Amino acid sequence: MKVGVLASGSGTNLQALLDAAAGGRLGPARLAAVGVNVPGCGALARAQAAGVPTFVVNHRDFPSREQFDVALLAALRAHGCELIVLAGFMRILTPLFLDAFAERVINIHPSLLPAFPGVDAQGQAFRAGVKVAGCTVHFVEAGVDSGPIIAQVAVPVLDDDDASALRARILAEEHKILPAVVRAMAEGRVHADGCHVHIRPTPP
Fold first, then answer.
1. Prior bond to 110 cis, omega within 30?
2. Quick one: 145 exposed, middle or buried, by C-beta within 10 A (0-12, 13-18, 19+)?
3. What is the Cα gyration radius of the chain?
């Protein structure tokens, strides 16, 4: 399965995917392209260093979200992408995009959704005083951080935590769960039934 990754920032989750691919841990998934909407961002440099094809579609060059999404779609299709992974991609995709890749767009979010959607989820969790935070991989719908949940990992909030320490521990789990879900998707082990998602275990 050819995977297209979209990112906007430093690209640490992208790096987890690049490392998993290099180590043969993505199964039949292949990173076909990395696209960014922020020229010069860290994710772009990481992909280029790994020899993965890249493209830049700057959202500031388009007067509407729909026109931006049309350009994104064209770039992803040019690389034959079948699964789209949002790895720190800070744009809301329109139904035009999501319909083109129905049940083939996934996102990583640093909270146990549906709790704490949106930006700074780790800070939201810390300020709320919860005892357990975590991260979620989910299918993307038109809403913000909505869509059926594929997998989650819980991260305890320790007594001596601050927001920065919690953020770092959640990120470490993101780096494990995202490649695992991408592999499961490529192996056909993820099945959505309405709002319920099932992942079959890896064959022995």
1. no
2. buried
3. 16
Q: How many structural domains comprise the chain?
A: 1
Q: In this structure, is residue 204 part of a structural domain?
A: no
Non-local (6+) Cβ contacts of 114 within 8 A are 145, 146
Bridge-based pairing state of the strands 83-86 and 105-109? parallel
Q: What is the per-residue pLDDT across 111-144, written as a single tens digit (0 to 9) for each?
A: 999 999 999 999 999 999 999 999 999 999 988 8
Q: SS3 of 187, please?
A: coil
Judge whether 138 counts as a catalytic residue.
no
d(Cα 165, Cα 95) in Å, to the nearest integer? Answer: 36
> Which of these is catalytic: 109, 175, 196, 198?
109
Neighbours of 167 (CB within 10 A): 19
Q: Is-contact 162 126, C-beta < 8 A?
A: yes
CATH of residue 133's domain is: 3.40.50.170
pTM higher than 0.85: yes
